[in-house]
Amino acid sequence: MTTAYEITRRILDGRDGEFPDRPETIQALPLVLRLEKTAVPPRDRLLAAAARACAALCFDERVATDPFWARPYGNWIDARVRKVARRARASKWERVQRIPGVTMVEVDEERREVAAARAFLPSPVNDVDPVLNKLQITGADLPVVVNDEEPAAKVDGGEGSGSPAPGHAVIYIDTSLGMSVGKAAAQVAHGSQLMGAVLSAELSAQWKAAGFPLEVREVSAERFHELRQRVVGADDLIQTRWITRSGGETEPMVVVQDAGHTEVAPGSATVIAQWVPCAAQG
Length: 282
Description:
Helices cover 30% and strands 23% of the residues. The protein is α+β, with helices and mostly antiparallel strands. The strands form two sheets. It has a six-stranded mixed beta sheet with strand order 7-6-11-10-9-8, sandwiched between helices. Strands 1, 2, 3, 4 and 5 form a five-stranded mixed beta sheet that branches.
């Protein structure tokens, strides 16, 4: 039986099933970011919630076994895997929970929610669920905090799953592009989806069981360039139209290049996803 992992790995083939004269082929996966008036989340944690929500939906076995999920997901994965982020608060946030999808929550040390986002089944961009279509895409932003430090390997991970994590993903954003929080959310979601696809089947399954632990770091242009050079200078470099990767299936790094429909120029490298294996215990 085909698995969610196998279906999602089709993204690595560089497929492009969009045809401008057939609007139904232009597909997008909606994301909704929770942005309350009184409890403003840190930008990096909100973006992490969006990335984890996307990964959780993409590797949910219903995209392989449930026709209601599998049909729209398969159509989207064979197109350009666009993602569009919107925002919601209060009753609107509660309302979108009733639409099929996956919500992920970021918590603090005391397990209190600090950020949340929900990913939904893809659809043609001209046939979005009316409840989602009414939500605003623009008009909200959060302060950017630059973090150029090298990530440390963790002993274990997992946001509330109880399962040990084999490592965690770090998704770096090039702050020099000046992306809005919505645009950045779509880009880190690309990064998390790709990370789950390029990892080996075993590591990807373990990452999923641990709750897709990851962190988002917004970095300077210099740091982003340094990270990109690690990828493009590697001996095992693999390139497709929008994806550049190296590191194989055990320590991958993936550069995401944007199609340039909004905010950035076509071909811009927007995020880099890196797998950081756990440190040995003891």
